[in-house]
Amino acid sequence: MSALIQLQHVTKTYPMGEVEVHALRGLDLEVPRGQFVVLLGPSGSGKTTTLNLIGGLDRPTEGAVLVEGEDIAQYSERRLTAYRARKVGFVFQFFNLIPTLTAAENIAFALELTTKDRAVVRQRTEELLALVGLSDRGDHFPSQLSGGEQQRVAIARALANHPAILLADEPTGNLDVETGRQVLQALRELNQKEGVTVVLVTHNTAIAPMADRVVRLHSGVIASDEYNPHPVPAAELNW
Ligand SMILES: Nc1ncnc2c1ncn2[C@@H]1O[C@H](COP(=O)(O)OP(=O)(O)OP(=O)(O)O)[C@@H](O)[C@H]1O
Ligand SMILES: [Mg+2]
Questions:
Q1: What pLDDT was estimated at residue 1?
Q2: pLDDT digits over 7-35, tens only?
Q3: Rounded to whole angstroms, how far apart are CA atoms 100 and 109?
Q4: Which one is the CATH code of 33-59+76-236: 3.90.220.20, 3.40.50.300, 3.40.50.720, 3.30.300.20?
Q5: Distance 47 CA to ligand 2 centre (A)
Q6: Domain ranges of the chain
Q7: CA distance 181 to 233
Q8: Ligand 2 centre distance from Cα of residue 130 (Å)
Q9: Single pTM value for the model
Q10: CB under 6 Å to ligand 1: residues?
Q11: Which regions in the chain score pLDDT beneath 50?
Protein backbone atom coordinates (compact mmCIF):
# COMPACT_ATOMS: atom_id res chain seq x y z
CA MET A 1 0.00 0.00 0.00
CA SER A 2 1.33 3.41 -0.90
CA ALA A 3 1.61 6.17 1.71
CA LEU A 4 -1.38 8.44 2.36
CA ILE A 5 0.59 11.53 1.35
CA GLN A 6 3.48 11.51 -1.14
CA LEU A 7 5.29 14.67 -2.14
CA GLN A 8 7.49 13.91 -5.15
CA HIS A 9 10.21 16.36 -6.25
CA VAL A 10 8.01 19.26 -5.22
CA THR A 11 9.18 22.80 -5.86
CA LYS A 12 7.36 26.05 -5.23
CA THR A 13 8.62 29.26 -6.73
CA TYR A 14 6.91 32.60 -6.25
CA PRO A 15 7.59 35.24 -8.87
CA MET A 16 8.25 38.58 -7.13
CA GLY A 17 8.70 41.17 -9.85
CA GLU A 18 12.22 40.75 -11.21
CA VAL A 19 13.23 38.03 -8.79
CA GLU A 20 11.91 34.61 -7.80
CA VAL A 21 11.47 33.25 -4.30
CA HIS A 22 12.28 29.56 -4.08
CA ALA A 23 10.08 28.52 -1.16
CA LEU A 24 10.52 24.78 -1.80
CA ARG A 25 13.49 23.45 -3.72
CA GLY A 26 12.68 19.80 -4.29
CA LEU A 27 10.81 18.05 -1.52
CA ASP A 28 10.35 14.30 -1.29
CA LEU A 29 8.21 13.18 1.63
CA GLU A 30 5.96 10.19 2.29
CA VAL A 31 3.54 10.14 5.20
CA PRO A 32 1.78 6.87 6.01
CA ARG A 33 -1.79 6.85 7.29
CA GLY A 34 -2.12 7.47 11.03
CA GLN A 35 1.27 9.08 11.55
CA PHE A 36 1.70 12.17 13.77
CA VAL A 37 4.39 14.23 12.05
CA VAL A 38 5.92 17.44 13.31
CA LEU A 39 7.36 19.67 10.61
CA LEU A 40 10.01 21.88 12.19
CA GLY A 41 11.99 24.71 10.72
CA PRO A 42 12.94 28.35 11.08
CA SER A 43 10.82 31.19 9.75
CA GLY A 44 10.76 31.17 5.96
CA SER A 45 11.92 27.55 5.61
CA GLY A 46 8.78 26.53 3.70
CA LYS A 47 6.59 24.95 6.40
CA THR A 48 3.35 26.76 5.60
CA THR A 49 4.00 26.38 1.87
CA THR A 50 4.26 22.61 2.37
CA LEU A 51 1.01 22.48 4.36
CA ASN A 52 -0.80 24.58 1.78
CA LEU A 53 0.26 22.18 -0.97
CA ILE A 54 -0.87 19.09 0.98
CA GLY A 55 -4.13 20.86 1.83
CA GLY A 56 -4.88 21.81 -1.77
CA LEU A 57 -4.81 25.53 -0.96
CA ASP A 58 -2.02 26.00 -3.48
CA ARG A 59 -0.36 24.07 -6.30
CA PRO A 60 3.32 23.18 -6.71
CA THR A 61 5.44 24.77 -9.43
CA GLU A 62 6.86 21.33 -10.22
CA GLY A 63 6.37 17.85 -8.87
CA ALA A 64 3.43 15.80 -7.66
CA VAL A 65 1.32 15.90 -4.50
CA LEU A 66 -0.23 12.47 -4.23
CA VAL A 67 -2.98 11.80 -1.70
CA GLU A 68 -4.28 8.24 -1.66
CA GLY A 69 -2.37 7.83 -4.92
CA GLU A 70 -4.03 10.72 -6.78
CA ASP A 71 -2.11 13.83 -7.81
CA ILE A 72 -4.18 16.65 -6.33
CA ALA A 73 -1.98 19.19 -8.14
CA GLN A 74 -3.72 18.07 -11.34
CA TYR A 75 -7.26 18.47 -9.93
CA SER A 76 -9.65 21.08 -11.33
CA GLU A 77 -10.60 23.89 -8.93
CA ARG A 78 -13.91 22.15 -8.37
CA ARG A 79 -12.34 18.83 -7.40
CA LEU A 80 -9.81 20.60 -5.25
CA THR A 81 -12.62 22.33 -3.33
CA ALA A 82 -14.33 18.97 -2.77
CA TYR A 83 -10.97 17.48 -1.70
CA ARG A 84 -10.47 20.22 0.90
CA ALA A 85 -13.99 19.82 2.29
CA ARG A 86 -13.88 16.02 2.59
CA LYS A 87 -10.30 14.93 3.09
CA VAL A 88 -8.60 17.73 4.99
CA GLY A 89 -9.06 19.57 8.27
CA PHE A 90 -7.18 22.80 8.94
CA VAL A 91 -6.16 24.29 12.28
CA PHE A 92 -4.45 27.68 12.42
CA GLN A 93 -2.60 29.77 14.96
CA PHE A 94 -5.48 32.22 15.33
CA PHE A 95 -8.38 29.78 15.76
CA ASN A 96 -10.50 31.44 12.99
CA LEU A 97 -13.84 30.59 14.61
CA ILE A 98 -16.91 32.44 13.40
CA PRO A 99 -17.56 34.93 16.24
CA THR A 100 -21.33 35.10 15.79
CA LEU A 101 -21.78 31.32 16.10
CA THR A 102 -21.56 29.28 19.30
CA ALA A 103 -18.97 26.52 19.70
CA ALA A 104 -21.56 23.91 18.70
CA GLU A 105 -22.71 26.00 15.74
CA ASN A 106 -19.15 26.48 14.50
CA ILE A 107 -18.77 22.70 14.37
CA ALA A 108 -22.25 22.11 12.91
CA PHE A 109 -21.52 24.67 10.19
CA ALA A 110 -18.61 22.55 8.96
CA LEU A 111 -20.75 19.41 9.04
CA GLU A 112 -23.47 21.09 7.01
CA LEU A 113 -21.02 21.49 4.12
CA THR A 114 -21.30 17.75 3.55
CA THR A 115 -24.63 16.65 5.05
CA LYS A 116 -28.14 18.06 5.46
CA ASP A 117 -29.18 15.37 7.94
CA ARG A 118 -30.02 17.28 11.14
CA ALA A 119 -29.73 14.21 13.36
CA VAL A 120 -26.27 13.37 11.98
CA VAL A 121 -25.14 16.97 12.49
CA ARG A 122 -26.40 17.07 16.09
CA GLN A 123 -24.94 13.70 17.02
CA ARG A 124 -21.51 14.30 15.48
CA THR A 125 -21.34 17.81 17.01
CA GLU A 126 -21.93 16.34 20.48
CA GLU A 127 -19.41 13.58 19.84
CA LEU A 128 -16.76 16.09 18.74
CA LEU A 129 -17.34 18.42 21.69
CA ALA A 130 -16.90 15.40 24.00
CA LEU A 131 -13.73 14.33 22.17
CA VAL A 132 -12.09 17.70 22.87
CA GLY A 133 -13.44 17.84 26.42
CA LEU A 134 -15.92 20.67 25.86
CA SER A 135 -19.33 19.04 26.22
CA ASP A 136 -20.32 21.77 28.68
CA ARG A 137 -19.20 24.63 26.44
CA GLY A 138 -21.30 24.06 23.31
CA ASP A 139 -23.48 27.13 23.94
CA HIS A 140 -20.56 29.49 24.46
CA PHE A 141 -19.62 32.02 21.80
CA PRO A 142 -15.88 32.20 20.97
CA SER A 143 -15.56 35.40 23.05
CA GLN A 144 -16.85 33.39 26.03
CA LEU A 145 -14.12 30.74 25.69
CA SER A 146 -10.45 30.73 26.72
CA GLY A 147 -7.81 30.60 23.99
CA GLY A 148 -7.19 26.90 24.56
CA GLU A 149 -10.92 26.17 24.48
CA GLN A 150 -11.29 28.12 21.25
CA GLN A 151 -8.46 26.12 19.71
CA ARG A 152 -10.08 22.85 20.82
CA VAL A 153 -13.33 23.95 19.16
CA ALA A 154 -11.31 24.72 16.03
CA ILE A 155 -9.81 21.22 16.18
CA ALA A 156 -13.26 19.66 16.62
CA ARG A 157 -14.49 21.66 13.64
CA ALA A 158 -11.50 20.57 11.55
CA LEU A 159 -12.35 16.93 12.29
CA ALA A 160 -16.08 17.31 11.63
CA ASN A 161 -16.20 15.38 8.38
CA HIS A 162 -13.74 12.62 9.35
CA PRO A 163 -10.88 14.01 7.26
CA ALA A 164 -8.00 11.67 6.50
CA ILE A 165 -5.53 14.49 7.12
CA LEU A 166 -5.35 17.15 9.80
CA LEU A 167 -3.03 20.06 9.02
CA ALA A 168 -2.09 22.32 11.93
CA ASP A 169 0.00 25.45 11.45
CA GLU A 170 1.49 26.68 14.76
CA PRO A 171 -1.65 25.58 16.67
CA THR A 172 -0.08 26.48 20.01
CA GLY A 173 1.67 29.64 18.78
CA ASN A 174 -0.84 31.87 20.51
CA LEU A 175 -1.23 29.88 23.74
CA ASP A 176 0.58 29.65 27.06
CA VAL A 177 2.44 26.44 27.88
CA GLU A 178 -0.27 24.70 29.92
CA THR A 179 -3.00 25.53 27.42
CA GLY A 180 -0.71 24.54 24.57
CA ARG A 181 -0.15 21.16 26.18
CA GLN A 182 -3.92 20.59 26.44
CA VAL A 183 -4.35 21.40 22.77
CA LEU A 184 -1.50 19.05 21.78
CA GLN A 185 -3.00 16.34 23.98
CA ALA A 186 -6.36 16.77 22.23
CA LEU A 187 -4.63 16.47 18.85
CA ARG A 188 -2.81 13.31 19.89
CA GLU A 189 -6.01 11.72 21.27
CA LEU A 190 -7.87 12.45 18.06
CA ASN A 191 -4.98 11.02 16.06
CA GLN A 192 -5.32 7.82 18.10
CA LYS A 193 -9.12 7.62 18.46
CA GLU A 194 -10.13 8.77 15.00
CA GLY A 195 -7.04 7.59 13.14
CA VAL A 196 -6.52 10.98 11.53
CA THR A 197 -3.04 11.60 10.11
CA VAL A 198 -1.58 14.79 11.61
CA VAL A 199 0.98 17.12 10.08
CA LEU A 200 1.79 19.79 12.65
CA VAL A 201 3.97 22.74 11.70
CA THR A 202 5.93 24.64 14.32
CA HIS A 203 9.21 26.40 14.95
CA ASN A 204 8.98 25.27 18.60
CA THR A 205 11.48 22.41 18.97
CA ALA A 206 10.05 21.55 22.42
CA ILE A 207 6.98 20.03 20.74
CA ALA A 208 9.03 17.51 18.73
CA PRO A 209 9.26 14.75 21.39
CA MET A 210 5.49 14.07 21.22
CA ALA A 211 5.58 13.25 17.49
CA ASP A 212 6.01 9.86 15.82
CA ARG A 213 8.32 11.57 13.38
CA VAL A 214 10.13 14.89 13.11
CA VAL A 215 10.95 16.38 9.72
CA ARG A 216 13.16 19.45 9.68
CA LEU A 217 12.98 21.91 6.81
CA HIS A 218 15.71 24.35 5.99
CA SER A 219 15.57 26.81 3.07
CA GLY A 220 12.99 24.74 1.24
CA VAL A 221 14.65 21.33 1.54
CA ILE A 222 14.46 18.55 4.11
CA ALA A 223 17.43 18.84 6.44
CA SER A 224 16.59 15.79 8.57
CA ASP A 225 13.87 13.18 9.01
CA GLU A 226 13.81 11.22 12.27
CA TYR A 227 11.49 8.75 13.95
CA ASN A 228 10.65 8.83 17.65
CA PRO A 229 10.41 5.25 18.89
CA HIS A 230 8.86 6.45 22.16
CA PRO A 231 6.79 9.62 21.73
CA VAL A 232 6.35 11.57 24.97
CA PRO A 233 2.83 12.38 26.23
CA ALA A 234 1.95 16.01 25.49
CA ALA A 235 1.38 16.60 29.21
CA GLU A 236 5.11 16.12 29.81
CA LEU A 237 6.29 18.71 27.29
CA ASN A 238 7.79 21.95 28.50
CA TRP A 239 8.81 25.19 26.85
N1 LIG B 1 2.59 34.19 -1.60
C2 LIG B 1 3.91 34.34 -1.55
N3 LIG B 1 4.55 35.15 -2.42
C4 LIG B 1 5.88 35.29 -2.39
N5 LIG B 1 6.70 34.69 -1.51
C6 LIG B 1 6.12 33.87 -0.62
C7 LIG B 1 4.71 33.66 -0.57
N8 LIG B 1 4.44 32.80 0.43
C9 LIG B 1 5.62 32.49 1.00
N10 LIG B 1 6.65 33.13 0.36
C11 LIG B 1 8.07 33.01 0.70
O12 LIG B 1 8.42 31.63 0.67
C13 LIG B 1 9.28 31.31 1.75
C14 LIG B 1 8.65 30.21 2.61
O15 LIG B 1 7.49 30.73 3.24
P16 LIG B 1 6.62 29.91 4.28
O17 LIG B 1 5.43 30.74 4.59
O18 LIG B 1 6.37 28.55 3.76
O19 LIG B 1 7.60 29.82 5.54
P20 LIG B 1 7.36 29.23 7.01
O21 LIG B 1 8.38 28.16 7.20
O22 LIG B 1 5.94 28.86 7.17
O23 LIG B 1 7.74 30.46 7.94
P24 LIG B 1 7.07 31.00 9.34
O25 LIG B 1 7.62 30.14 10.42
O26 LIG B 1 7.56 32.40 9.44
O27 LIG B 1 5.58 30.90 9.21
C28 LIG B 1 9.55 32.60 2.51
O29 LIG B 1 10.77 33.11 2.06
C30 LIG B 1 8.39 33.50 2.09
O31 LIG B 1 8.79 34.84 2.09
MG1 LIG C 1 4.38 29.64 8.33
A1: 65
A2: 999 999 999 999 999 999 999 999 999 99
A3: 12
A4: 3.40.50.300
A5: 6
A6: 33-59+76-236
A7: 9
A8: 30
A9: 0.94
A10: 14, 16, 21, 23, 41, 43-49, 203
A11: none
